[in-house]
Design a protein that fits this description.
single chain; 351 residues; alpha/beta; 10-stranded mixed β-sheet; two-stranded antiparallel sheet; 10 helices; binds S-adenosyl-L-homocysteine; binds iron/sulfur cluster
Length: 351
């Protein structure tokens, strides 16, 4: 008996898996039921005859993750600890907002990139997620909250656990499944992938016909500073990272996003802000500033709001620059805080 989960397969793969005896229209019905209608069990797919549903249920798990814990923030953010088929767990976050929702998903369990300000780094890498496990997080959370992606202005950000570009094939396949008009139909422009700067993989991503928007975690204004806080800079130099960004094939509607985590007294001076402008000046870019979200074992502090404001105002003179509002800090759901935290004392939610 095969145990291939259906979620994660595209239509030709479903056709192939189910075998030549099943008419092609049945495979299409199954594809639509899973991805467009987000059926959570075979039983729910009432367009199929009962006998077929039963046969399918015996042969093929759907493969949706299950919720093992849920944490609610005072700002309405929800963090989910999800259990996968091998009993490992990973996190995804829902951030509801007026008129649109954002789902933040993981692409790996843990992360092998050793950024010094990030709680996920302390987990190390457990394993890559499959395409089905990546897309499944969106399918489960949107279905739990009755979000209809096509009308619900749903944004998906691959900014949870993991370095997405170290799992590029599965990230690209998951993006295709999420974006497919016959399925969830989340437009590419509403899906964003964030990377710590894996240069060869950025080039590879640029060649994909269907791909998310690209965000780069810049986080420093010069080479030495970046190497200190993101040791991966020794392998992929800041200078080369900026070069690959310059050559990146943007679509007509697209800008590169640069994320910059502000660490008090480390990379948050006005001089840093001016260097960021010089670095990015020639690019079609915007900058998202993130004041450090603290956590146990992170040897940095959050800068004062006045410092963040001053940094922003300098960058914003030349490049669109926004401060990302922390979401779900009190439940360890904000950027860089995903480490399966459970009973730890709550952090304040900042306004
Ligand atoms: N691994 C990818 C995506 C996940 S991290 C990446 O690094 O880009 C998502 C964002 O959170 C990144 O921009 C990262 O720089 C930022 N981040 C990590 N730790 C953080 C922290 N403690 N506070 C604020 N932002 C953090
Ligand atoms: Fe990994 Fe991103 Fe955290 Fe760096 S910031 S350790 S790349 S998840």
């Amino acid at each position: 008996m095969t145990q291939t989960p259906l979620i994660g397969l595209d239509l030709p793969e479903i056709q192939q898996l189910l075998g030549p005896d099943l008419p092609a229209y049945r495979a299409r019905q199954i594809y639509h039921a899973i991805y467009r209608d987000r059926a959570t069990s075979w039983d729910a797919i009432t367009t199929l005859p009962q006998s077929l549903r039963q046969w399918l249920a015996e042969q093929f798990p759907l493969g949706l993750p299950t919720v093992s814990s849920e944490y609610s923030s005072s700002d309405r953010t929800r963090r989910y600890l999800l259990t996968l088929r091998d009993a490992r767990t990973v996190e995804a976050v829902l951030m509801p907002e007026e008129g649109r929702d954002t789902i933040c998903i993981s692409t790996q369990i843990g992360c092998p990139v050793d950024c010094k300000f990030c709680l996920t780094a302390l987990m190390g890498l457990e394993r890559n997620l499959t395409a089905g496990e990546i897309a499944g997080q969106v399918m489960l959370l949107s279905s739990l909250h009755r979000i209809v992606p096509i009308t619900g202005h749903l944004n998906v950000v691959m900014m949870g656990q993991g370095e997405p570009l170290l799992n590029l094939a599965n990230v690209v396949k998951a993006t295709r499944l999420l974006a497919d008009k016959q399925g969830l139909a989340i437009p590419e422009r509403r899906i964003t992938v964030s990377t710590s700067g894996i240069i060869p993989k950025i080039e590879e991503l640029g060649r994909e016909p269907v791909r998310p928007r690209l965000a780069i975690s810049l986080n420093a204004s010069h080479e030495d500073q970046r190497r200190e806080i993101m040791p991966i800079t020794s392998k992929y130099h800041l200078k080369d990272l900026i070069e690959v960004c310059r050559a990146y094939p943007l679509r007509s509607w697209e800008k590169l996003t640069f994320e910059y985590v502000l660490l008090k007294g480390v990379n948050d001076t006005d001089a840093d802000a001016r260097r960021v402008v010089t670095l990015l000046g020639q690019l079609n870019a915007k900058v998202n500033l993130i004041a450090l979200n603290p956590g146990p074992g992170i040897p940095f502090e959050t800068p004062d709001p006045e410092r963040v404001e001053s940094f922003q105002s300098i960058v914003a003179r030349s490049i669109p620059c926004f401060v990302r509002k922390p979401r779900g800090r009190d439940i360890y759901a904000a950027c860089g805080q995903l480490k399966r935290m459970s009973g730890e004392p709550a952090l304040p939610v900042l306004s």
